[in-house]
Amino acid sequence: MAIKIDKSICDGCPDYQEGRCERICPGNLIAKEGEKAEMKRPAECWDCVACVKACPRNAISLYLPEEIGGQGTELKVQQNQKRSLWIFDKEDGSRKVYKTG
């Protein structure tokens, strides 16, 4: 599995000294390239989802393996103060949303 950073959405978290994803990644795998975040070594990603949850712009998603969601499925998280929405977007255009909190 690996993450995907949507550069059309990512703004590099200008409100913070470093991007949230860059600070939270336990493998130190994300860095800013110019104004946008970029995955430095995708093969080393632990799939911990920390960056997906931390991104305030919802610019990061995790590709899920076939065993979990099927090939082409992406996991995104939208958070507010009270709950998280776990969004599974499949390649065929279908979507499942789970609420926590």
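Next protein, fold it too.
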Amino acid sequence: MSCSKRGRVVSLFGRDEFTWDEMAEAGETFLVERARLARLTSYTELNATLIRRTGLPGFDFSRQDERAAMGHLLSLIVQRNRPTTGLMISALATYIDANDAGPGFYVLAQQLGDLACGASASAKFDFWVTQVKALHQHYARAQQK
């Protein structure tokens, strides 16, 4: 970490810890909304929502480091939400025109011990589907209370 000109600590991808916190909070809120609607979202829609709700600069997906930054944000959102749900809420965010989560989702699932290292493509897909269904059920129940 290094200090920026404004005296704030700059963490990963040129964003300070306060920016990451604000984006993670807004991102979690949006993903919970999607879960309550039993819907998925795309990274593009999540990015646009973050820009609109926070006023912060979004991610430039034409750049590899910015795609990695979105992955970092999704990891932060999982860390915030997992104690409540026991699930990976980032499962709700997919690539546009994709049928499941990005590779970082599966790496994080393995790091968390939720998915076996070396899992087959089929096992990964099944894990993702299970996470999505469980998130939709969790938030449908929470809404009924």
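About the second fold: The beta strands are 2-3, 9-10, 41-42, 93-94.
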